[in-house]
């Protein structure tokens, strides 16, 4: 049986509470957060989440990263801390997948979605 939006919103808001820093990875980060960009002033970016509505939460604003010009940007990871911390997972990026000539890369859309399934 599907659950209500209120339950989905609570679940997603609970998840976003531990998804507080975003990272960029040059290749699949696997389950450990491997292949994170280094150099060029790179640092993880703090994510501020809008409250979930209908089981979907969106990041509030654009995430702007600095890094080595021309570096691959293939995956976005989520972490519990700005350095070290616990790796929470990743998603493959679409569109432009390199830092520009000025060493900048932006993520304009980031969402977390609850899946509302039923058994039968």
Brief description of this entry?
The protein is mostly beta strands and 120 residues long. The protein is built from one helix and eight strands. The protein has one domain.
Structure report:
The protein is mainly beta and 120 residues long. It has one domain (5-113). It is 10% helix and 27% strand. It is built from one helix and eight strands. The strands form three sheets. It has a four-stranded antiparallel sheet with strand order 2-1-5-6, with no helix packed on it. The protein has a two-stranded antiparallel ribbon with strand order 3-8. Strands 4-7 form a two-stranded antiparallel sheet. A hairpin with a 7-residue loop joins strand 5 and strand 6 (87-92). The chain starts with a helix and ends in a 7-residue tail after the last strand. The mean pLDDT is 94.
Across the major sheet, the strand order is 2-1-5-6
List segments where confidence is low: pLDDT < 50 over at least 5 consecutive residues: none
Helix content: 10-25%
Q: What is the oligomer described by this structure?
A: single chain
Q: State which percent range the strand residues make up.
A: 25-35%
**Strand runs, count:** 8
